[in-house]
Structure prediction request, 346 residues.
Amino acid sequence: MPPSPLVSLLIPTHNNARTVGESIESCLRQTFADLEILIYDEASRDSTREVIGGYAGRDPRIRVMTSDANSGPLRAWRKLLHEARGRYCTFVWSDDLLLPRYVEMLAGVLQQHPKDLLAGCNAYRYYLPDDPGVHIEPANLDHPSPGWELLNAPYPTSRLRGDAYALGIFAKIFPVTQMCSLFDTATAREVFDHYIDIENPYGFDYSRAAYGNDVAYLSEFGLRSGELTQVGEPLVVARSTPGSLTERLIHTNRWQYWLQYTYAFYAGWSRCRHLSPRTGAMIREAEARVHFCDVFYSLKRRRWPRAGNPFKIARAVWFIARHDRHVNKKASPATMEAWLQAHARG
Prediction:
């Protein structure tokens, strides 16, 4: 067996023939060469396997696994994680792209700070045509298009504590997708298993409808790391279609989407209370936002909310107005640390 690479890029696929080739190309074009590309296809019925097989035949860094059973997204991602041979890894969703210096920059940060468990970055985003018959023009990753939006509003490259990072995800300063971070693989295997299923009073099946697993996973990672670096430069291109599962849920039941995410923060932070003395204040904010989201989710479903304390709702609105980047454009990594110093112990 060849020596283990430093980095594993993990690509899960399911009926992604239209986009996966370009995703693989973006991994092959990395300026950092000491990597493997591990692809796992579950139950594709289109030509996905032919596409990935063609690439695997041309580059020995690519390994392919397949299954004819569909175990759902989380368990497919877990399979990749436990097969990875690199010290560091990330997931590359099969319609998204890595800019050429993604691995070089984030692996460089982790090698500069060897005790860190992750390093992250910002991303570009744009929508693909929803019609599968429409040709997709290849993205120019060497010269990103001026028309691409930033996934998150610009923030400076920052060295910060893990709890401030978790709060920054909550406040929409940092991206929520795992692809925007490079992780310590051994830690990822342990942390990931905590959030395949998230017990909740609403009956949400997080293992199949994966809305919120990412924020709980990222939060625990940051809290375990203690300190980490977030690179302000966008090194990822997140692409989706207007008809994707996420977009459909946002348009049909936006409050279920937000409640699932908010409850995942609450569950993840509650699990990690012992990792930072400042987590208690964060848990109170997450609980308050659960109450806020539940009111609107319940109105949509025409039932009485499970959580609807007016004082906690007011607290949630206050935090959103003062500290959420979607509302307050001055929110930043520095303001997250300032909030924790003002509201938490430690």
Q: What stands out?
A: The longest strand covers residues 227-240. The mean pLDDT is 95. DSSP finds eleven helices and ten strands in the chain. The CA atoms of residues 291 and 309 lie 6 Å apart.
